[in-house]
């Protein structure tokens, strides 16, 4: 059994793979006998609550309104346990919501280089308003420079540039079940 932590919280830049890896972590936990772990994607919850896509929220209501929704959704989700949470790339800057969510949680930083993140986002077709300008790589570098010190406060860091989603998930499951340490 995984003892104390109630949540496994994935943090990192857009393109790190938080939304992709989260459900795989739940599936692998289940296969390892850790049943009933759910997956929550904060960005998807925000879209459901707003009834709009994230690009629509940014375009019609602005970034401040998006952050307000993100904070509210994070607070709601932090009431649940036994969940894997994919956060948004900028969630780490919401100090109080972060502290609340990370109480009795394992935070895992999916560390991606801006170059790999930019390539993945472009292959996926965009959808990130903050990275959608003329120079996505430069924007990702800027965001990383501002946020990395916060991401690095996580208990664990996984460098994901050369790992498949399944490899990242098994690494996280091993960390959570105490089979490896970093
Ligand atoms: N380890 C990986 N190897 C190759 N491609 C990956 C990997 N992880 C994710 N991807 C791909 O990168 C793209 C972005 O992944 P994903 O949406 O999971 O990132 P994210 O961290 O959730 O980003 P955001 O913060 O914007 O929500 C997707 O197309 C996904 O399939
Ligand atoms: O890096 C960011 O600030 C963001 C990342 C995405 O996950 C979304 O939460 C949104 O596009 C903002
Ligand atoms: Mg995501």
What does this structure look like?
The chain is an alpha/beta fold and 182 residues long. It has a single domain (7-176), classed as 3-Layer(aba) Sandwich (Rossmann fold). 51% of the residues lie in helices and 13% in strands. The chain has 8 helices and 5 strands, in the order βαβαααβαβααβα. The chain has a 5-stranded parallel beta sheet. Helix 3 (54-61) packs across helix 4 (63-77). The chain is globular and about 45 Å long. The two termini are 20 Å apart. It binds adenosine-5'-triphosphate, (3R,4S,5R)-3,4,5-trihydroxycyclohex-1-ENE-1-carboxylic acid and magnesium ion (MG). Adenosine-5'-triphosphate binds next to helix 1, helix 6 and helix 8.
